[in-house]
């Protein structure tokens, strides 16, 4: 199964399936065998990039609604 990412209303990004999360140097985070994790969207987590529920304490609000992105800008 490919990874599925769900944007949760007023909360994190939920990633499920087979995936890796890499740091800027290309090193993989140890996920302890998890097949699902939540990634912080509010910026307040003490365990970034993972969600620790800080969005609830800080009143983060963002309703998710699917939409089309514009076409990519061609590189010159």
- Give Rg in angstroms: 15 Å
* Low-confidence residue ranges: none
Fraction of residues in helix? under 10%
Largest sheet: 3 strands, antiparallel
- Which geometry do the CA atoms define? globular
* The level-1 CATH class: Alpha Beta
Number of strands: 3
Secondary structure tally, helices: 1
Estimate the mean pLDDT confidence. 96
Structural class by SSE content: mainly beta
Question: Can you tell me about this structure?
Answer:
By secondary structure, the protein is mainly beta. The chain has one helix and three strands, in the order E-E-E-H. The chain has one helix at 54-58, and strands at 4-7, 13-16, 36-39. A three-stranded antiparallel sheet has the order 1-2-3, with no helix packed on it.
Compile the SSE list and pairings.
Elements: E1 4-7, E2 13-16, E3 36-39, H1 54-58
Antiparallel strand pairs: 1-2, 2-3
Key terms:
Ribosomal Protein L9, domain 1; three-stranded antiparallel β-sheet
Q: What can be said about this structure in brief?
A:
Helix content is 7%, strand content 16%. The chain contains one helix and three strands; from the N terminus they run E-E-E-H.
